[in-house]
Each structure stands twice: as C-alpha cells, then as structure tokens.
Design a protein that fits this description.
Elements: H1 6-23, E1 25-28, E2 36-39, H2 41-45, H3 47-57, E3 66-70, H4 73-85, E4 88-94, E5 102-109, E6 112-119, E7 129-137, H5 141-152, E8 156-165, H6 171-179, E9 185-190
Parallel strand pairs: 3-4, 3-7, 7-8, 8-9
Antiparallel strand pairs: 1-2, 4-6, 5-6
Helix pairs in contact: 1-3, 5-6
Length: 191
C-alpha cells in the first residue's frame, strides 16, 4: 500500500469540506416532497474538489489491500482512492449488471429490496483487507450489505469511507451493529 501521510490527509479533509460547502447543489423536494437533496456532482466536477475528496477519503487508512466502490458513485471514488492508496479496486455492482457466476446479496430497503453483486470467478478475496467507499452514508443498509457480500468471499472490511454522512439517519449505528463497533467509519463531511 502507498504511504498515507496523516498530515496530508488531514489537510485534504479541510480542503474537501470547503469544496463541499462551496459546490454542493441543494435541490428541494427531491426525490420526494420535503426532502432537501444535496447533489455532490458539482463538487466532483471541480478538479480541486475531487482531488481533495479523494485524498480526504484515505484519511486514517492503514493496511488496506483493496478498495471496493459501491455502485455507482462509489465507482468514481473507489478507483481514485485505490490509485491514491496504490491498491486495486473492485466494483460492487447492482444486481443483474455482471455476467455469471456472481456472489450476490439481497437486502431490505425502506421501499423494497435490492441486490449487490461481485464476480465469483477470477478474484480471490480471501484475507484481503478492504476499504468500502461510497458517496453518502444514509441508513447504512447498503454499506452493511456490501460488507456482508465481501466477508462471504473471505475478505475483511477494514473500514468504510464516504464523502457525506447524513447523521440523522443512523447509518453509523447500523454499520456498528452489522459489522461490529471496531470497523472505522470515516466521513469527510457531516450533515
């Protein structure tokens, strides 16, 4: 793994938080009335914002062998974070997007269910220490499902890193219950 310099990543967290405050687009009543959606697309489209976020997501990362990005914005972030850490990247896909055979997990959402998949052939994840990356931590269900999927293959989720955590939705507690209290959760910004 590449060298993560704590001072450099801590400074990147500060720069990333400023970019998030400056560029996040607020959309009222999306995806439903009463919801104020925070669109991070403009932050990621800004070169300085993207650079700061990628480095900030590595803050506190040690002993990572692989980065797993959750479909779809986690793909963008996961690849860049993996490059920063000098490790490989794995896309955790939504169900039906990969050719068989796949490892899959189906999990409950507040409005139904969803499935996540990774390839079952060509990868040996046994013993790999994985950093799970996504854009937003809301209720935590998707992160726990992705971690469950990776753990079933013999990998070990060593941490979760997100750009923004929606604190009022309890995602951090869901992760602690699902993965154990020792799995660190790093959020660049809290909302």
């Amino acid at each position: 793994m590449g060298g993560v310099v704590p001072e450099r990543t801590a400074e990147a967290v500060t720069r990333a938080q400023a970019a998030i405050a400056r560029h996040t687009r607020l959309v009222d009543d999306f995806p439903s009335p009463g919801i104020a959606f925070k669109d991070l697309t403009p932050v990621l489209a800004d070169a300085e914002g993207l650079s700061a976020i990628v480095t900030a997501l590595t803050h506190g990362c040690t002993e990572i062998d692989l980065v797993a990005g959750i479909d779809a914005r986690g793909f963008l972030l996961g690849g860049a974070v993996a490059r920063e850490l000098e490790v490989g990247v794995l896309a955790v896909r939504k169900g039906g997007k990969l050719p068989p055979p796949v490892h899959a997990v189906t999990y409950s959402l507040e409005y139904g269910s969803a499935t996540l998949e990774i390839p079952a052939d060509g990868l040996d994840l046994t013993g790999q220490r994985v950093l799970l990356v996504d854009d937003v931590l809301a209720t935590g269900g998707t992160a726990v499902a992705a971690a469950d999927l990776l753990n079933r293959t013999g990998a070990r989720v060593a941490g979760v890193a997100v750009i923004m955590e929606l604190v009022g939705l309890g995602g951090r507690d869901t992760i602690a219950r699902g993965l154990g209290p020792d799995v660190p959760v790093h959020s660049v910004a809290l909302d």
